[in-house]
Design brief:
- The chain is mainly alpha-helical and about 150 residues long.
- The protein has one domain.
- It is built from 8 helices and 2 strands; from the N terminus they run αααββααααα.
- It has a two-stranded antiparallel ribbon.
- β1 and β2 form a beta hairpin.
- The longest helix has 17 residues.
- The radius of gyration is 16 Å and the shape is globular.
- This is TTF-type domain-containing protein.
Length: about 150
């Protein structure tokens, strides 16, 4: 691994730079959600990720699954939508442990990323993420605004 790659991965692993592992297993407040959903950047296509059994994380997966983020702390991937809005479940692969079964990440038979993307819980979290981002970006008024009008 070259010095540039190590620097990028180290910067990404710093909780102040929003490594998704920093948010796992926690009950998040709005400040945490905002940091998680707006500050975490997609991985660089030039980043070389560590290999496990000859396989490694691919930043290309983030193009198809924009909710996916890599954690250098765990050498694993997390779902930022589910981290932000799903109830914490001990042992859940995308919100607690992190996903690192790179062999089964994609594919029509055992594609875990596609399976997660199509799950009911993930779809609910994605809808909440969209609504939350609209509120934060002031494109939509929050619930308190409407309640004050009553």
């Amino acid at each position: 691994m070259n010095i540039f790659t190590e620097s990028v991965l180290k910067q990404q692993s710093d909780p102040t730079n929003s490594d998704p592992y920093f948010f796992s297993g926690k009950s998040l407040n709005d400040s945490d959600r905002t940091q998680l959903l707006f500050d975490i950047k997609m991985s660089s296509s030039t980043t070389v990720f560590p290999a496990t059994d000859g396989r490694r994380y691919s930043s290309k997966w983030e193009e198809k699954f924009p909710w996916l983020r890599y954690s250098i702390q765990k050498d694993a991937a997390f779902c930022i939508n589910c981290l932000a809005f799903c109830n914490y479940k001990d042992g859940d692969v995308f919100t607690d442990k992190g996903f690192n079964d790179w062999k089964n990440a994609t594919g029509s038979k055992r594609g875990v990323l596609l399976s997660h993307n199509e799950s009911k819980t993930h779809k609910q979290a994605t809808n909440k993420t969209i609504n939350y981002k609209q509120i934060v970006n002031k494109k939509e008024k929050d619930t308190c605004f409407y309640l004050k009008k009553l």
